[in-house]
Amino acid sequence: MSAEPRINDRIRVPEVRLVGPSGEQVGIVPLAKALELAQEYDLDLVEVAANARPPVCKLMDYGKFKYESAMKAREARKNQAHTVIKEMKLRPKIDPHDYDTKKGHVVRFLKQGDKVKITIMFRGREQSRPELGYRLLERLAEDVQDLGFVESHAKQDGRNMIMVLGPHKKKTEAMAEAREAQAARKAERLGRGGASDEEPAERPAEA
Question: What is the pTM of this model?
Fold first, then answer.
């Protein structure tokens, strides 16, 4: 079945509840009268509530309505935020420099509005000391608490221990801020370029 509404001659009922071009309620009128009004206004008669009794129809420019609806749907898809889960793997006995590097990646992911799955990988005898993994995950969660929260607490999964961090900032907000920052950087570069173009004119002429 077509998802599109019936319009004009495809409407097959004796009478309709008519809504005018500006949303005003015209009332219940015979279908022939509604079609006549549509011709007078040079508009389409569009069935907007087929299950009502009688069906509700509106006078509108259906071609324009379809175009605007398609543009809105396209814009919504463009701005749609897809949830992304990044993964970061750490060892329980990680050295300070490596920890700072990994933490930096987690910070970047959270700022982008992405979730982060943190995996602690145990090897050999390390498996007998799960508290090392718990402490490391607690430390990381505390270090990035301004940007994210623990969405899924640490749990053992075979040889690994897993925790999921969720961002405080929504993906759509992060995307909007990134676009604003990019526009600001572009404006700043253009501003610097404009200033440098004027410098030669200010130099005094050589003798």
Answer: 0.49
Mean pLDDT (the chain, rounded): 85
Pairing, β 148-157 against β 160-167: antiparallel
pLDDT tens, residue by residue, 76-112: 776 665 667 899 999 998 999 999 999 999 999 999 8
Rounded to 5 degrees, φ, ψ at 144 are -115, 20
For the structural domain made of 1-61, what CATH number should be given?
A: 3.10.20.80
Stronger pLDDT, 206 or 101, i.e. the higher one: 101
Q: What is the CA radius of gyration of the chain?
A: 31
Topology match between the domains 1-61 and 85-167? no
> Where does residue 203 fall: left (phi above 0), alpha (psi -120 to 50 degrees), or beta otherwise?
beta
Q: What's domain 85-167's superfamily in CATH?
A: Translation initiation factor 3 (IF-3), C-terminal domain (3.30.110.10)
Coil, strand or helix at 68: helix
Is residue 168 predicted with pLDDT exceeding 70?
yes
Annotate 70-126 with DSSP letters as a single string: HHHHHHHHHTPPPP-EEEEEE-TT--HHHHHHHHHHHHHHHHTT-EEEEEEEP-GGG
Domain-by-domain residue ranges, the chain?
1-61, 85-167
